Amino acid sequence: MEEKRKKKLAFPHTFVILACIIALMTVCTYLIPAGSYERVYNETADRNVVDPNSFTYVDQTPVSLFGLLHAIPDGMLEVADIMVFIFVVGGAFNIITRTGAMENGIKKLAYKLQGREKLLIPLMMFAFSLGGATFGMSEETIIFIPIGIALARALGYDAIVGMAMVTFGAAIGFSSGFMNPFTVGVAQKIAELPTFSGMPLRIAVWVCMLVAVPTCILRYAGKVKRDPSASYVYDLELSQKDQRVTIEDVTLRGRDILVLLVLAGGLGIIVYGVINFGWGVLDIAAVFLGMGLVGGIVGGTTPNGMARDFIAGAKDIAMGALIVGIARGILVVMTEGQILDTIVYALATVISGLPKAVAAEGMLLVQCVINFFIPSGSGQASTTMPIMTPLADIIGISRQTAVLAFQFGDGFTNAIIPTHGTLCASLGVAGIPFNKWFKFALPVVGVELAICAVFMLIATMTNYGPF
Q1: Which candidate in 45, 193, 256, 409 could, as Cys together with 189 as Cys, close a disulfide (CB 3.0–4.6 Å)?
Q2: H or E element at residue 35
């Protein structure tokens, strides 16, 4: 008797997942009533925000098949700056990588960390969390993904550990947000609260996250170190085993030291520019391009060699850049079909009828749902805070609690939603399939949201105030 072979169903490609979501949202433009809020300029927040009392249903504007197809190039156009940033950083970083200086530096660091590998994860996460908490580090993490992965592999871990300690590290600071100007800063201005007020509770959230999240990652990392086949990306590790850096006490050449100094100096300039001048992604890309050129020169790479390395690096990262553009198409469809405001209005209406303690948790849940559709922190604040602020007054919870719900909902789920451009770009850089990352990240996000729910309850019970 012949054995029946069952084909294992392949998990859909990230492009397929995003295309299906765009198609689903297109169908929804025919099913969900179109509605709209008026946007008015808010001098305090220095941006256009929603007028919470202005929602009206409008004539249906369903998206056609041609509109569906148009949404993808339109989305790419809307996030062109981020796509350019990804291509430039990928190319410039490859110039630096090809000099061999980074590989030798990582070998040296891995050698020094032998026997103390477990310190790497919490220390790196603490460092990146400071970036997330103070200057809203998000897209900037993409440039550190290759370094994190190379270092993690050198110490016996896998690509997921390398990416997790960078992305989750920054996310802890970004989402706890004790001084994040792009989320808490904007939301508090709209809610008419003193900027960065209520900091002690947010610092307590940050500390709790810095204990819980590294613990989750260390548990997974320990399994991978003991048994490499336990890795969720074991097939990726096998296919890239030639890229694994060996642990050895290498002697850094003079050129290696110069290249590493260029890299450190460039990153320092980026941090300074972001904090003091509010640099965006194109400013960071320009600095990174300069780092790549100077690093290539001091590393002994010829001009032709640098050109080839730049092209190769941009090519390797192309998938991440394209994912960002395609993901934006979801928001394009919802905006053109005028269903985004209807969804926000419906969710806010549900909360208004709940008891105070339940309503606070409901706000958190609603912000998590809305974050899937509006993954931009400042964009979500401009859309939801003008609605949630008066709603908090009506329900009887403090405005600071409403801001807390926003910052939690906006940030922590970014690690698992396919509409978040930075996540998709990071996965593209790392070569990690979305489903493998989701399997790892979902329990971690679950722990984070459980902590958030506890702090929402504390905020409600203590009438969390502005100071």
Answers
A1: 45
A2: strand 35-36
Q: How far apart are CA 414 and CA 167, in angstroms?
A: 10
Half-sphere exposure at residue 71, Cβ-oriented, CA atoms within 13 angstroms: 29
DSSP one-letter string for 151-210: HHHHTT--HHHHHHHHHHHHHHHHHH-TT-IIIIIHHHHHTT--TTTTHHHHHHHHHHHH
pLDDT of res. 5? 45
Residue 50 confidence (pLDDT):
78
Spatial distance between the Cα atoms of 55 and 53, rounded to a whole number of angstroms: 6
In b/e form, how buried is each residue of 317-352, taking b as 16+ CB within 10 angstroms?
Answer: bebbbbbbbbbbbbbbbbbbbbbbbbbbbebbeebe
Question: Which residue, among 79, 162, 92, has the nearest Cα to 427 in the 3D structure?
Answer: 162
Quick one: tokens of 105? 């530096």
Partners of 39 in the beta sheet?
50
Distance CA 234, CA 439 (A): 14
Of the chain, the percentage scoring pLDDT greater than 70 comes to: 94
The DSSP result for 237-249, as a single string, is: HHHTGGGPPPP--
With tokens 């060699």, the residue in question is: 305
What pLDDT was estimated at residue 218?
94
56-57 and 35-36 strand pairing: antiparallel
Q: Which two tokens stand for residue 85?
A: 């940033």
**Tokens 């997942």 correspond to what residue?**
17
Within the chain, which residues score under 70 in pLDDT? 1-11, 44-46, 135-136, 243-248, 466-467
Using one digit for the tens of pLDDT, what is the confidence trace for 63-109? Answer: 999 999 999 999 899 888 878 888 888 888 889 888 988 778 777 77
